[in-house]
Amino acid sequence: MEKIALATLAAVHLIVAMWHGSAHSELGVTLSSGQNLFVYAVVVLAPLVATALLWTRYERWGLWTFLVAMCGALLFGVYYHYVFVSPDNVHHLPNGTTAAHAAFETTAAVLALAELASALCAAFVLGWHTRRMERVAIAASRSGDRS
Fold first, then answer.
1. Rounded to whole angstroms, how far apart are CA atoms 93 and 43?
2. Which secondary structure element, helix H or strand E, spans residue 125, and what is its range?
3. What is the span of the domain harbouring residue 58?
């Protein structure tokens, strides 16, 4: 069930990120090469790789990758959309239609909420997974002590 929840959050995040990317395009808000690299590597690719890893023996790596990617994406987005003064900041957008501004502002907020929800869910699942693995290890060591 937790894998399905994380996969659903990853899908929602990807859809919202693409929606936000179209809002960027509509307003002509471009990113630097470094920002584009971060967006493609951390915001887009890492959650997809992490989600795929959840169904392998590298589930723990997938959980950690998902958590780190969502935290990184959240910090990046909050910084550039709400703190750093640039055309990427919701309060300093370039000229455009009211609808284009509304789409940018809405998608920036929804993206932040999706990343926060994803990070919190990943942290919870990682904690649950870690405790489960510890219980398995303890049970295995106890059964080994009895032989």
1. 21
2. helix 98-145
3. 2-145
Cβ contacts of residue 52 below 8 Å, gap of 6+?
A: 62
Q: Which of 74, 73, 53, 57 is nearest to 7 (CA)?
A: 53
* HSE value, Cβ hemisphere, 13 Å, CA-based, for 18: 6
Locus of tokens 């023996």: 57
Q: Write the pLDDT tens digit of every residue in 73-114.
A: 999 999 999 999 999 999 999 999 999 999 999 999 999 999
Q: How many whole angstroms separate alpha carbon 113 and alpha carbon 125?
A: 18
Question: Number of folded domains in the chain?
Answer: 1
- Report the alpha-carbon distance of residue 108 to residue 100 in Å, rounded: 12
Distance CA 13, CA 117 (A): 10
CA–CA distances in Å: residue 19 to residues 24, 72, 111: 9, 19, 9
> 97-135 b/e with 16+ CB inside 10 Å = b?
eeebbebbeebbbbbbebbbbbbebbeebbeeeeeeeee
Please give the structure tokens belonging to residue 44: 């887009």
The secondary structure of residue 79, as a DSSP letter, is: I
Burial of 141 (0-12, 13-18, 19+ CB in 10 A): exposed
pTM for this predicted structure? 0.90
